[in-house]
Amino acid sequence: MNADEWQILGFTLRTAALALLLILPPGVALGWLLARRSWPGKTLIETLAALPLVLPPVATGFVLLRLFGRRGPLGAPLHERLGLDVVFTWRGVVVAMAVMSLPLLVRASRVAFEGVETRLEDVARTLGAGELRVLATITLPLAARGLLGGALLALAHALGEFGATIIVAGNIPGRTTTLALAIFQRIQLGEDGAALRLMAAAVVVAFAAVWLGEVLLRRGGPAA
Amino acid sequence: MRLELAGIRLPLQPFTLEVEATLQAAASGICGPSGAGKTSLLELIAGLRRPAAGRVALDGEVLTDIRNDTARGTFLPARHRRIGYVPQDGALFPHLSVRGNLLYGRRDGDVPAAVVEVLGLGALLDRGIRQLSGGERRRVALGRALAAGPRLLLLDEPLSGLDGALRERVLGHLRMVRDELGVPMLYVSHDLTEVAALCSELLVIERGRVVAFGPAADLLVPQPGFALRRAP
């Protein structure tokens, strides 16, 4: 691989990792709320959170473009107050990856929390534990493998994200080009050798993440 | 020990649990067929379920006092009740060792020596939960509840699923808890022989209603095994 290709691989890994960090707290919290609490609008939020999984990625990208454009409801205040641009920058790549991966993380978190017996949490309460201690010492440790598996699947999904990224961040060499975008571009240009090298890098990274995720999910729920 | 259950109403499917009784024995049995509402009653006393109405008081302290389907009233959370609860299969924390389980409810210090001795847990302390037999799991679950220093112990079918010899051993440990550690207990079971061996007071529930309440000696008829004396 040449220097450009290494840069693309490094950029993709960094943005995907950042996207995962961004969605980890809200994704896990939402998974817990869906698994453990009843609240008005729960089904609506659950459906909204799953939408990016079923919508065409370019449609999600278009929504993000409107939201984060300089005149968009989120993009305008970011630009005017903080001087931050999202669209056609690395931030756009992170946002697209984050939104497209969130449904996987929420779903895996919900399943992981549902797999923890509520009786164990109840017993912890009778032993004097408050809600935070129950969460920290019983729920999270027992859901940990499922959560980790979900996080790795979300990361793998972010690494391969294409449709939303190209709409929100474009394909600017050295600035917003990810592995998926670069492979697409090389194929378009007939540079099959370069496309194959990048594809091999993508396969290795994605395989490692998905495989680890599957192993962890399979050992998954809390042991009896 | 004096546990008052007054005007308790807890809607369940397909009936409403309604209880009125004051339990005072060192060991009281709660009997009834499966699905009668026994476990729900224990959870209600432990503070894990909120009744639609009713009052629960332990040695004069009001734990729950809710009147006529209002959301208001007194409801002391489970963590402040100091009531030990041992669910049917023990519900041990699988990611902690035996020692970790026993220490969970302790604010400081080590596992109380008396608990280790009475329940014979010394050799098990550093084992993982998966390495324990059925009987050992029950003893550890009992020890975990006792180590937290409860003023009342709620036991839900602690001998279910154990074979004859093991039942006798665990029953022996329960007698020692009652007599040597002096912790009062509510013992839920559908097996009258177990109840007769341990409890001096008996509350019988069927489909959410109390059908008999009084001294065990008055309510149980010794046969080969035991039967309930029915009102004429």
Question: What report would you give on this structure?
Answer:
The complex is a heterodimer of chains A (224) and B (232). With 224 residues, chain A is mainly alpha-helical. Chain A is built from ten helices and no strands. Chain A has a single domain, classed as MetI-like fold. Chain B has one domain: Rossmann fold (3-Layer(aba) Sandwich), CATH 3.40.50. Chain B has seven helices and 13 strands. Chain B has a six-stranded mixed beta sheet, sandwiched between helices. A five-stranded antiparallel beta sheet of chain B has the order 2-1-4-5-6, with helices on one face. In chain B, helix 5 links the parallel strand 8 and strand 9. In chain B, helix 3 runs antiparallel to helix 5. The mean pLDDT of chain B is 89.
The first-level CATH class of chain A is given as Mainly Alpha
Structural class of chain B: alpha/beta
CATH class of chain B equals: Alpha Beta
CATH architecture of chain A: Orthogonal Bundle
**Helix content bin of chain B:** 25-40%
CATH superfamily of chain B: P-loop containing nucleotide triphosphate hydrolases
Radius of gyration of chain A: 20 Å
Discrete helix count of chain B: 7
Q: N-to-C SSE series of chain B?
A: EEEHEEEEHHHEHEHEEHEE
Mean pLDDT of chain A: 92
What's the CATH H-level homologous superfamily of chain A? MetI-like
Order of helices and strands of chain A: HHHHHHHHHH
Query: From the helix content, strand content and strand pairing of chain A, which structural class follows?
Result: mainly alpha
For the secondary structure, the number of strands of chain A is 0
Strand content of chain B: 25-35%
* CATH topology term of chain B: Rossmann fold
**Spatial extent as radius of gyration of chain B:** 18 Å
What overall form of chain A do the CA principal axes indicate?
Answer: globular
What's the CATH architecture of chain B?
3-Layer(aba) Sandwich
Quick check: average pLDDT of chain B? 89
Detail the poorly predicted runs of chain B: none
